[in-house]
Amino acid sequence: MVHEKKLVDQVSGWLSLFDDGSVNRAWTGPPEVEFMVKRVEPHDEYIDGVAVYDLIIDSKSDLIVRVYEPKGILNDDESKLPIVLHFHGGGFCISQYDWAMYYHVYTRLASTIRAIVVSVKLRLAPEHRLPAAIEDAYSALLWIRSLAQVLESVKPSHELARADFNRVFLIGDSSGGNLVHAVAARAGEEDLSPLRLAGAIPVHPGFVRSVRSESEKHKEFETPFLSLDMVDKFLALALPRGSTKDHPITCPMGEAAPPLSRMKLPPYMLAVAENDLIKDTEMEFFEAMKKAGKDIEVFFNKGVGHSFYLNKLAVDFDERTAKETDLLFEAIANFINKH
């Protein structure tokens, strides 16, 4: 007799969990925005000034990165470009490095900031609970270090030959922002030379705690990119079994986390949105970092919500979203240029 699997739970149109442990991540939301979660194929030719290619950096674990290379990168007369290592969001449970929503953001970042952007394919929960995504993110950083070590002694023809390994930046949105901090903290415990971690940019990081913050009580702040249902269910599926949202991965400013004052961290730029459901706990992290004497600045977008800049339809057709996206990119560029 064939067992018909039963639906155990769903998460806001993004994920369905069945009683046999299988997961369906097929988009079930409005069809007009489905294009944003479609895979974009890599392309060797320069489109809008950027070529995109995928590299398998660990065949055993099938760890893949996507590299966004701005045109002219191998010209001898061009100064070396910073590397921006990106960790995607999705509550550790959904999202992919090659989705259209990220493609549009990081091709723009590569071309306008003149940076090499490397985005990591992260293992997802609940099949791979944390710290799996942290291990993938850190492995990508070590891969960049291995390139720096090789390129120190060999005249390369590698695509990253024009990379400035002295200016490597971490950036991540939502749960990817949690990975930014986790990787930066771990990197501070090791000698990564000749690579230098020059800065960290958590954008709307998923920093929360067990007790609801005031901003989490604002139902009008809920969006398809973040709702209380998503926060609660994704983290229950992603955190190590038996953990609460006070876990150091999700609450690095909490009592259960290692003291920030003891960490060796690069300069931070924390991006916060005025209408973000979790902005209060993001600001708690900012204040904790300041109290610990860390180099951190905050950039504040007004009138927009969590991960607003990933919504290409809003960026294209809503004046406020477009303006605030421009301001966010300008702030990121300024931070990278001064470090």
UniProtKB/TrEMBL annotation:
Q: What is this protein called?
A: Alpha/beta hydrolase fold-3 domain-containing protein
Domain Alpha/beta hydrolase fold-3 residues, every copy: 84-309
Give the GO molecular function terms.
hydrolase activity
Query: Which taxonomic lineage does the organism of this UniProt entry have?
Result: Eukaryota, Viridiplantae, Streptophyta, Embryophyta, Tracheophyta
